[in-house]
Amino acid sequence: MDYLKAFLVGGLLCVIGQILIDRTKLTPARILVAYVVAGVLLGAVGLYDKLVDFAGAGATVPLTGFGNTLARGVKKAVDEDGALGILTGGLTASAAGITAAVIFGLLASLIFKPKDK
Protein backbone atom coordinates (compact mmCIF):
# COMPACT_ATOMS: atom_id res chain seq x y z
CA MET A 1 0.00 0.00 0.00
CA ASP A 2 2.94 2.34 0.70
CA TYR A 3 4.15 1.92 -2.87
CA LEU A 4 0.74 2.77 -4.23
CA LYS A 5 0.51 5.93 -2.11
CA ALA A 6 4.00 7.02 -3.18
CA PHE A 7 3.19 6.35 -6.84
CA LEU A 8 -0.11 8.23 -6.72
CA VAL A 9 1.24 11.34 -4.97
CA GLY A 10 4.47 11.47 -6.99
CA GLY A 11 2.51 10.84 -10.17
CA LEU A 12 0.00 13.55 -9.32
CA LEU A 13 2.83 16.05 -8.82
CA CYS A 14 4.22 15.05 -12.23
CA VAL A 15 0.80 15.32 -13.87
CA ILE A 16 0.35 18.83 -12.49
CA GLY A 17 3.76 19.80 -13.88
CA GLN A 18 2.95 18.33 -17.28
CA ILE A 19 -0.38 20.15 -17.40
CA LEU A 20 1.40 23.41 -16.57
CA ILE A 21 3.87 22.79 -19.40
CA ASP A 22 1.15 21.89 -21.91
CA ARG A 23 -1.53 24.45 -21.02
CA THR A 24 0.41 27.54 -19.94
CA LYS A 25 3.21 29.65 -21.33
CA LEU A 26 5.34 29.00 -18.25
CA THR A 27 8.83 27.76 -19.01
CA PRO A 28 9.98 24.51 -17.41
CA ALA A 29 12.47 26.49 -15.32
CA ARG A 30 9.69 28.62 -13.84
CA ILE A 31 7.62 25.54 -13.11
CA LEU A 32 10.57 23.95 -11.31
CA VAL A 33 11.05 27.08 -9.21
CA ALA A 34 7.32 27.11 -8.45
CA TYR A 35 7.54 23.52 -7.22
CA VAL A 36 10.43 24.35 -4.88
CA VAL A 37 8.60 27.40 -3.54
CA ALA A 38 5.41 25.36 -3.13
CA GLY A 39 7.36 22.86 -1.02
CA VAL A 40 8.65 25.68 1.16
CA LEU A 41 5.20 27.22 1.59
CA LEU A 42 3.45 23.91 2.28
CA GLY A 43 6.12 23.11 4.84
CA ALA A 44 5.73 26.51 6.48
CA VAL A 45 2.02 25.99 7.08
CA GLY A 46 2.56 22.40 8.26
CA LEU A 47 0.87 20.59 5.38
CA TYR A 48 3.93 19.06 3.75
CA ASP A 49 4.85 16.91 6.76
CA LYS A 50 1.37 15.37 6.63
CA LEU A 51 1.84 14.67 2.92
CA VAL A 52 5.21 13.03 3.62
CA ASP A 53 3.66 10.90 6.36
CA PHE A 54 1.03 9.74 3.89
CA ALA A 55 3.08 9.30 0.71
CA GLY A 56 6.68 8.80 1.85
CA ALA A 57 9.07 9.01 -1.09
CA GLY A 58 6.24 10.08 -3.38
CA ALA A 59 6.38 13.42 -1.57
CA THR A 60 10.07 13.70 -0.65
CA VAL A 61 11.66 12.87 -4.00
CA PRO A 62 10.05 15.54 -6.25
CA LEU A 63 11.23 19.16 -6.17
CA THR A 64 8.58 20.07 -3.65
CA GLY A 65 10.41 17.78 -1.23
CA PHE A 66 13.67 19.61 -1.96
CA GLY A 67 12.04 22.94 -1.13
CA ASN A 68 10.65 21.51 2.07
CA THR A 69 14.08 20.13 3.03
CA LEU A 70 15.67 23.54 2.45
CA ALA A 71 13.07 25.28 4.59
CA ARG A 72 13.35 22.78 7.44
CA GLY A 73 17.14 23.08 7.34
CA VAL A 74 17.03 26.86 7.54
CA LYS A 75 14.52 26.77 10.41
CA LYS A 76 16.66 24.32 12.39
CA ALA A 77 19.87 26.26 11.75
CA VAL A 78 18.28 29.58 12.74
CA ASP A 79 17.11 28.01 15.99
CA GLU A 80 20.63 26.72 16.69
CA ASP A 81 22.92 29.40 15.20
CA GLY A 82 20.80 32.52 14.90
CA ALA A 83 20.93 34.67 11.79
CA LEU A 84 23.91 32.76 10.38
CA GLY A 85 21.58 29.78 9.97
CA ILE A 86 19.75 31.65 7.21
CA LEU A 87 22.81 31.18 4.99
CA THR A 88 23.95 27.73 6.14
CA GLY A 89 20.82 25.79 7.04
CA GLY A 90 19.51 24.98 3.57
CA LEU A 91 22.87 23.77 2.30
CA THR A 92 23.50 21.68 5.40
CA ALA A 93 20.09 20.01 5.21
CA SER A 94 20.32 19.22 1.51
CA ALA A 95 24.05 18.47 1.30
CA ALA A 96 23.63 14.70 0.98
CA GLY A 97 21.18 14.99 -1.93
CA ILE A 98 23.26 17.59 -3.74
CA THR A 99 26.44 15.54 -3.23
CA ALA A 100 24.74 12.39 -4.53
CA ALA A 101 23.52 14.24 -7.63
CA VAL A 102 27.01 15.55 -8.39
CA ILE A 103 28.68 12.17 -7.84
CA PHE A 104 26.14 10.22 -9.92
CA GLY A 105 26.36 12.86 -12.66
CA LEU A 106 30.14 12.50 -12.68
CA LEU A 107 29.91 8.70 -12.79
CA ALA A 108 27.43 8.83 -15.66
CA SER A 109 29.70 11.16 -17.59
CA LEU A 110 32.65 8.81 -17.09
CA ILE A 111 30.69 5.74 -18.15
CA PHE A 112 28.85 7.14 -21.15
CA LYS A 113 31.38 9.61 -22.62
CA PRO A 114 29.14 12.63 -23.24
CA LYS A 115 29.62 14.65 -26.40
CA ASP A 116 28.84 18.26 -27.24
CA LYS A 117 25.96 18.76 -29.64
TrEMBL record:
It comes from the Bacteria. The chain crosses the membrane at residues 6-22, 29-48, 83-112. Coiled coil: none annotated. Keywords: Membrane, Transmembrane, Transmembrane helix. This is Stage V sporulation protein AE. It comes from Faecousia intestinalis. The lineage of its organism: Bacteria, Bacillati, Bacillota, Clostridia, Eubacteriales.
